[in-house]
Amino acid sequence: METWNTRLAKALAESEYKPHQLAQALGVKTPSVSAWLGAATIQPAKNITGENLLRVCKLLNIRPEWLMFKEGAMRPSSSKLSDEMLEIIERLKEIDRIQGSEREDAVYFINRLLRKEDRSQQKAG
């Protein structure tokens, strides 16, 4: 089961920070960050203070809703895409990582929808 701790570890791995650097930037001790991550033999923390949650999210450029509940896109919208489309893109990225019929079905239906949209635009143009 994916927890907020594993999502935080993912975001940290994709960032420029190491755990001790994140701790320093937040003004907390490294063992606190290690507990959030459940690093090494440390039991993962069950919660995080709201203040630290928001500060971590700002530093790592991730959405608090994604970190805590895996709701919506990982990163805030930096484009003109709606939150709904960003969520679909994130789900498609997850599907693309797996193999098998679920991925094949998704690719088939998306291509079919895109071809239909292309035809509609050609007729209108």
Put simply, the count of helices is 7
Work out the radius of gyration: 19 Å
Helix content: 55-70%
* Gross geometry: elongated
Q: What is the CATH class name of the largest domain?
A: Mainly Alpha
Uncertain stretches:
none
Would you give the CATH topology of the largest domain?
434 Repressor (Amino-terminal Domain)
Explain how this protein is built.
The chain folds into two domains: 4-69, lambda repressor-like DNA-binding domains (434 Repressor (Amino-terminal Domain), Orthogonal Bundle); 83-124. The longest helix has 24 residues, at 101-124. By secondary structure, the chain is an all-alpha fold. The model has no long low-confidence stretch (mean pLDDT 87). The chain has seven helices and no strands.
Short synopsis of the structure:
The protein folds into 2 domains: 66 residues, lambda repressor-like DNA-binding domains (434 Repressor (Amino-terminal Domain), Orthogonal Bundle); 42 residues.
Q: Main traits of this protein?
A:
125 residues, mainly alpha, 434 Repressor (Amino-terminal Domain), 2 domains, 7 helices, 66% helix, 0% strand, elongated
How is the secondary structure organized here?
Blueprint: H1 4-13, H2 19-26, H3 30-37, H4 50-60, H5 64-69, H6 83-97, H7 101-124
Helix pairs in contact: 2-3
